Request: fold
Amino acid sequence: MRRPFKVAAVTTLIVTGSAIVVVAPNAIITAFLDGSRRNLSPSKFVVGPGATADWAYSVEGLHDETKNLCGPDKIDCKEGYRGDRLTLLRFDSKDKAQDYAASLGSNGYQSHWLVADFSHAPLGATDRLRVKRVLDETWGSESD
Reply:
């Protein structure tokens, strides 16, 4: 009678052990990536004169405006960079980023903790797509 109990216990341990082996690394990787990407600064998208990337036009003039954009009685963001054609904001949570992007309607785009605000200058659909693509692809890149 005890034998079926032992077999069941071993099976449970094997299944549980497998779940830990499979799930734990994914949880660790996700936590690591979220932690390292959470602090991705809009400054990463500042380009110098003569930049040739297809999205560089959209971020021309991007400079730190955190003091003017973020804080009490302002946008609840951690960093803010304003350029000639868009503003990039970094939030301390994805939920805050999502809420702010939603408040901008079609002029806002959220990519994790970053929001592109297209509301202060005209930027064509193709250029907006390029900005969205580079923001989204940055999260998957291997370099910080």
Observations:
- The beta strands are 63-64, 79-82, 87-90, 108-111, 114-117.
- Residues 2-37 form the longest helix (36 residues).
